[in-house]
């Protein structure tokens, strides 16, 4: 069984730094914000040799999830403003079965990459 992967460009796996999950109290729609400290696709011009799919592809043992991000933001820092600080990729999930599938992927990805889950509401109420 292969490890779960996240790709913007076909064949170039990215390393996730952080995930933020929210749910609207009014609509019930869930928002996901994936944060990457760097992107392999832009390192050494990898993006010029691979096909951009226009989607975020999450692949695990169940198959592939294709997501069209509603937000893709590159945040730069440094004296010249040209040092990539992070990349934020956001999208919404409004169907319960899609949410459950996404969470199964995230559980597998977290386990394979030594990531853990922290509930901010629980932290704040402690």
Explain this structure to me?
The chain is an alpha+beta fold and 126 residues long. The chain has one domain: Elongation Factor Tu (Ef-tu), domain 3 (Beta Barrel). The chain has two helices and eight strands; from the N terminus they run E-E-E-E-E-E-E-E-H-H. It is globular.
Features:
Elongation Factor Tu (Ef-tu), domain 3, 4-stranded antiparallel β-sheet, 126 residues, single chain, 2 helices
Structural class: alpha+beta
**Helical content class:** 10-25%
For the secondary structure, the number of strands is 8
Average of per-residue pLDDT values: 86
Q: How many helices in DSSP terms?
A: 2
Summarize the structure.
Helices cover 19% and strands 41% of the residues. The protein has 126 residues and is of the alpha+beta class. It has one domain: Photosystem II Psb28 (Elongation Factor Tu (Ef-tu), domain 3), CATH 2.40.30.
Write the layout of secondary structure elements.
Blueprint: E1 5-9, E2 12-13, E3 18-23, E4 30-36, E5 52-60, E6 63-67, E7 71-77, E8 83-93, H1 96-113, H2 120-125
Antiparallel strand pairs: 1-2, 1-5, 3-4, 4-8, 5-6, 7-8
